[in-house]
Amino acid sequence: MVSKIISFSILTLVVSIVLINYFSRVKAIHPLAHLNVQEIIQEYGYPVEVHNVVTEDGYILTLHRIPHGRDNLSRERKPILLLPGILQSAWDFVHRGPSYSIAFILSEKGYDVWLGNVRGTTWSRNHTTLDPNKDPVFWDYTIHEIGVYDLPAFIDYVLKKTQQKSIHYLGFSQGTIAFFMMGSEKSDYLSKIKFMAAFSPAFYLKDPISPILKFLAKNWRSVQELLNFFNYRELFGRGDLFSSVVKFICHDENSILINLCIHTHFSIFGYSYDELNKSRLPLTAANTPCGISLKQFIHGLQMWDSGDFRRYDFGTEGNLEKYGQERAPHYNVSRVTTPVAIYYSSNDWAVNIKNMDRVLKTVPNVVRNYKVPLDDFNHLDFLYAEHVVDLLYKVVIDDLSKY
Question: pLDDT tens across 185-223, in order?
Fold first, then answer.
């Protein structure tokens, strides 16, 4: 079976080499598509700072900061750190503008907003000694390293810069996984977090509704073997085949291909027609996805397949060498005593609502259990929905104000 997949993939690769040269010349037509994170924040009239953070293992990460709103400089600000989902960056917290993006809304509510970009993404492809384009070892990390190196480095940096003892935290999808990994492995950091807002908490992932994710999860070993055969280390980076195809089919809301773009989007995250703004798809496609490592991708598939919250599975021999036991160890979520608010939805095709009871029973200090009151609200709607402010953000702002 694997050999057939590899043979087909070789043919696909040859065709792709031709296609990518064409796709890479297609430009997104949205007027803001050419702007980076710093530029789009400035475009909307907000102050912005760019900070470099060095992790314990040498990765140089970018933090984007919105220190205050457009009209208020003197007010005392409460620092809050936001961490996005897999394949996302700070861009996903700001590109919808002041009326819809949570980063801008928080800044107007009195928060000093810090936006994290984890290792390997567009704005954090740097290292003290390694070159991501030349050194495969740069990509030798899983989601675990994001939780135990990237997130603590962000927290320490924000605390030092703001001279505070603790901050608020908001994570979406992988941003919640990283938090619970950190809480399990470096529980001393929990005292540095006043309150954690968990958008679509993604650490128990059994049985995704998405047929694409379900297929990939059940066949993660074959997927890994295939991608290793082609020596992939980075996936979905800006300019690669997948990103170029996404950009091509989504680059024009009036294109005959736009329905393919929409259905691909929905088949992964859930169908949510009323919450989708088709005119913004070209803007999203110009900047997302933004790159992950192969091992990070496989780690996610392993959790979707098993339904367990474990460290990366290296196989029996690899686990014995790495962990001293045959199976990858569980993360101990019961250590996370920080006040946590959990926000979830019934139409989330990536994080099946059936897992939510287990999440709620495992996290020891859940201070809010909020199901978005819209049946069609999907996984990406937590950041992209047309009515997300009324459906979700007003509740989140109220919860944050209590801590």
Answer: 999 999 999 999 999 999 999 999 999 999 999 999 999
Model confidence pLDDT, tens digit, residues 77-92: 999 999 999 999 999 9
Distance CA 255, CA 240 (A): 22
Per-residue tokens: 3 = 């050999």
**CB within 8 A of 352, min separation 6: which ones?**
205, 206, 207, 208, 209
Closest C-alpha to 238, from 134, 89, 383, 129:
89
Pair of tokens at residue 354: 């059936």
From 45, 258, 54, 26, select the one nearest 150 (Cα to Cα). 54
Reported residue count of the chain is 403
pLDDT grade for 27, boundaries at 50, 70 and 90: low
- Give the single-character DSSP code of 58: S
The active-site residue, picked from 101, 124, 173, 345, is 173
Provide CB contacts within 8 A for 322, sequence distance 6+: 314
Both tokens assigned to 167: 């901050």
Residue 379 falls in the annotated catalytic set: yes
Catalytic residue from among 30, 68, 265, 379: 379
* Whether residue 293 lies in the annotated active site: no
Beta partners for residue 198, in sequence order:
171, 342
Whether this prediction's pTM lies above 0.85 is answered by yes
**DSSP result, 65-80:** EE-S-SS-SSS--EEE
